[in-house]
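User: Hello! I'm new to structural biology and keep hearing that structure can be predicted from sequence alone. Could you demonstrate with Cyclohexanone monooxygenase? Please show me the input and the output so I can see what each looks like.

Assistant: Of course. The first part below is the input, the amino acid sequence of Cyclohexanone monooxygenase. The second part is the output, the predicted structure written as tokens.
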Amino acid sequence: SNIQTHTGESISAKFCIMATGCLSIPKQVDINGINNFKGKTYYTSQWPHENINFHDQRVAVIGTGSSGVQSIPLIAEEAAHLYVFQRTPCFSIPARNTPLDLQEEQIWNKDYNEHRQKILNTYAGFHTPGLSYDQSALSVSPETQQKAYETRGQLGGLS
């Protein structure tokens, strides 16, 4: 089918993937009394382009979704005091995104088709060499769980 852009260009595609995210419309907090707050207020969905100076400031972050998880450590480096308000804790580990070194690239390239098949056949669509995804964390002992969490935490990302 055809898709027309805002400039009038027509594009023919079999699939159209709208990767805009489920939270693409900013949501203001609805907290009783928030309008009485006299300090500055920022929303991660509408972050200013210029740097914000949190040095020697008391800062409160409401929410620990993906934006909160990413911004809290950076704000904490600068703020005199940081208060975090969360309803539901989320799970997060460092991504550890880095370029592949030559040896890692050779490993992936050597067995590319095998890695690709594993990726296509996993429940979540990703594969980390050397890790198994064939059992639930809840099906093993707490000690085994802890060891697996530590290993995956060191690897980072979607490990």
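User: So the tokens describe the shape?

Assistant: Right, they're a compact way of writing down the 3D structure. Reading them back into a model, for example: The mean pLDDT is 86.
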